[in-house]
Amino acid sequence: MALNQNQLAQTPVQGMIDLTVGPANVIACQVKSDESAALIPGQGVMIVDSIDGVPKVTAVGDDDDQLFGFVLYNQKDQDFPAGAPVEIAFFRGTVMLMTAGAAIARGAQVMVVVSTKKVITATTNKRIAGIALDKATADTQLIRVLIDLPGGLAA
Questions:
Q1: Is CATH 3.30.530 the classification given to domain 21-91?
Q2: Measured at the alpha carbon of residue 70, what is the angle toward residues 40 and 48, in degrees to the nearest 5?
């Protein structure tokens, strides 16, 4: 969604942090230098085994991959190409706006769908990304998700 810098109130968008009381679990990282597609806010990422500098991240490639965190939205950048600095919401306790890929019950464990960059109710033996704090009644609705990483497998 395009935002107007002169609008009076911020429109909620995927990748924004919400319900913050005190510090959020956010870390400065860099997109892997040979990343093929730019990362977008709210997208799940994995940490890269690299030697130097800030932690490097790459897009999650499979629904079963171990998530490191999620790309944070900022007003300056719509996406983050290879080599770009990026902030990642990680670990437990941060609440992020994410796009639902289907109906989701409030309180349900959610997982990332890599192909759509959305979240759905976690299915058996898939990685849990967090807990839905809002109810989604259909695809493409923004919901707040309490990030719960490193996530175990859904039962």
A1: no
A2: 95
